[in-house]
């Protein structure tokens, strides 16, 4: 399964996200049991604590996280144009300026050490190469800057069987009904089961040059928030 998923990390992924852009927010609500809004608030609070001047939200998607960060300059980057159009619509509707650019996370059009904080929500598991992508995120951070990665993970504890069943079975069925694109809604939950998490993810962040790396499990491990500082 892991190899099959890796083979999709290219134009197929971009096309898949383009097809479901208009329903992507719904997918996140279903996958997260409606908790993704509160998870983003946790990210926003940690961003605010650093008092950044410039924030880059990579894999910004429809812009939910970027638009929730206030009081600073925020840029959004994504490799999928339909996603960016959704983000632009939200920005315009909320009368909020959100500079957006089309960019692959593995080759960002930002200078070295040019931002104070980089955020990624539900995006790193779709990187074509996790190690290269994390190094690229670290590259654009100034020394002392913070990387915050919010990502789905595998549940732990007494509720793990139920939560795992939900993630494997409910999103594909809801996605097939709502969007008519069963492939996308099958791939996204399946990618969670094969992606690095916990200590493995922390080690990948450390290998990318980040220090003081920590992981916070959310909602029984349905998601994890990883944070590290550019050395």
UniProtKB/TrEMBL annotation:
Enzyme class: transferase
PROSITE patterns: SAM_MT_UBIE, UBIE_1, UBIE_2
Gene3D superfamilies, per the entry: Vaccinia Virus protein VP39 (3.40.50.150)
Protein's UniProt keywords contain tRNA-binding: no
Alphabetically ordered keywords of this record: Menaquinone biosynthesis, Methyltransferase, S-adenosyl-L-methionine, Transferase, Ubiquinone
Catalytic activity: a 2-demethylmenaquinol + S-adenosyl-L-methionine = a menaquinol + S-adenosyl-L-homocysteine + H(+)
GO biological process, one term: methylation
GO-annotated molecular function: demethylmenaquinone methyltransferase activity
The EC number(s) this enzyme carries: 2.1.1.163
Matching SUPFAM superfamilies: S-adenosyl-L-methionine-dependent methyltransferases
Keyword Phosphoprotein: no
Binding site for S-adenosyl-L-methionine: 62, 78, 104-105
Pathway: Quinol/quinone metabolism; menaquinone biosynthesis; menaquinol from 1,4-dihydroxy-2-naphthoate: step 2/2
Record-linked CDD domains: AdoMet_MTases
Transmembrane segments: none
Family as reported in the entry's similarity comment: Belongs to the class I-like SAM-binding methyltransferase superfamily. MenG/UbiE family.
Function field: Methyltransferase required for the conversion of demethylmenaquinol (DMKH2) to menaquinol (MKH2).
Record-given protein name: Demethylmenaquinone methyltransferase
